[in-house]
Amino acid sequence: MSYFYLETHPEKQSELEQLGVTLEGTAFVGNNCEVGANSFLSDETRVNSRSIVGADTILHECARVTSESFVGSNCEIDEGTAIRHSQVGDNVHVETGCYIEHSKIGDDVWVGPNSVIVNSTIVNGAIIGEGSIVFDTEILPHDKVIPAGSMFAASCHASPTFFQAVWQHSQAIRTEAESYTHGKHRLDVHRARNDNDYLERMQP
């Protein structure tokens, strides 16, 4: 396992403080990123690679918003969720352990825990049940309530093996944010050895 020191630049931190943004513990915001007023970033969260987080949004422990992603205002992104190359609207709640990549999420959407959304568009007001996999699909108004454990793909002939491959892909990429409890334990051991508040595991 590789480790390195990562710290929000003092000028960026000052800029965020003036906006009323709270960075807790080792929360990190890249110089080329924006975070809206009064947002709260919990310990070990990361916003980087030209990403934007709107006002009054909460990122819980180990959440990641990276790779030119956009998260709107008044959102809540729970522990261990990773958002990459995606747009998330306003008033969205993404539960624990989700993975979202190359997708567009509308306003007022709820995404249940451990769901995977890749190459998809989710309509405003949709409810995505726990543990669902949505791949290469547009969720339209008449389908906007997705039961827990559902599997949606552009091809109606997609096999269980296909969905398993999508799931494994998402798991591999979001290893960095797999578990706040386990991640924090590993980090605490290394912090004790190095006496530094900004020690983080390297993101793959």
Secondary structure layout plus pairing:
Blueprint lengths: L2 E3 L4 H9 L3 E2 L4 E2 L4 E2 L4 E2 L4 E2 L4 E2 L4 E2 L4 E3 L3 E2 L4 E2 L4 E3 L2 E2 L4 E2 L4 E3 L2 E2 L4 E2 L4 E3 L2 E2 L4 E2 L4 E3 L2 E2 L5 E2 L4 E3 L6 H14 L6 H15 L4 E3 L3
Parallel strand pairs: 2-5, 3-6, 4-7, 5-8, 6-9, 7-10, 8-11, 9-12, 10-13, 11-14, 12-15, 13-16, 14-17, 15-18, 16-19, 17-20, 18-21, 19-22, 20-23, 21-24
Antiparallel strand pairs: 1-25
Give a brief outline of the structure.
The chain is α/β, with parallel strands linked by helices. It is built from three helices and 25 strands.
What report would you give on this structure?
This protein has 204 residues and is α/β, with parallel strands linked by helices. The protein has a single domain, classed as UDP N-Acetylglucosamine Acyltransferase, domain 1 (3 Solenoid). It contains 3 helices and 25 strands. The strands form 4 sheets. The chain has an 8-stranded parallel sheet with strand order 2-5-8-11-14-17-20-23, with helices on one face. Strands 3-6-9-12-15-18-21-24 form an 8-stranded parallel sheet, covered by helices on one side. It starts with a strand and ends with a strand. The N terminus and C terminus are likely disordered.
